[in-house]
């Protein structure tokens, strides 16, 4: 018996690549602090770059939609609908470091 009354408890697992997780989380926080729009595809692209820098092989991690959702959940990120001029900006036009 797990002690969970309604059966909705999820097992908490350690992340496979804590250095990647920390670096990417720090990057997202920094971008948001500057008021930049951080999209899912942008998080994935930066994650791939950081993974390459940390010598994590492409076969070791899958930057899938499921991975992205879990990353956002762990870092309490949510999707925002931007309106007005900010909403018309394309993700490609977002300036990267």
Feature tags:
97 residues, mainly alpha
Low-confidence stretches: none
The count of DSSP E runs of length 2 or more, i.e. the number of strands, is: 0
Alpha carbon gap, first and last residue: 49 Å
Return Rg in Å.
16 Å
Strand content: under 5%
Shape: globular
Structural class: mainly alpha
Number of helices: 3
Strand count, sense and barrel status of the largest sheet are:
none
Mean pLDDT: 82
Estimate the helix proportion, in percent. 40-55%
Order of helices and strands: HHH
Q: What does this 3D model show about the protein?
A:
- With 97 residues, this protein is mainly α.
- The chain has a domain at 40-78.
- Helix content is 41%, strand content 0%.
- It is built from 3 helices and no strands.
- The termini are far apart.
- The relative contact order is 0.16.
- The model has no long low-confidence stretch (mean pLDDT 82).
């Amino acid at each position: 018996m797990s002690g969970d009354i309604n059966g909705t408890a999820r097992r908490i697992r350690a992340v496979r690549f804590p250095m990647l997780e920390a670096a990417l989380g720090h990057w997202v926080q920094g971008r948001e602090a500057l008021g930049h729009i951080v999209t899912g595809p942008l998080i994935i692209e930066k994650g791939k770059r950081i993974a390459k820098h940390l010598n994590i092989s492409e076969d070791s991690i899958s930057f899938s939609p499921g991975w992205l959702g879990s990353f956002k959940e762990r870092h309490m990120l949510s999707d925002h609908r931007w309106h007005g001029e900010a909403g018309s900006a394309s993700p490609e036009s977002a300036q990267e470091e």
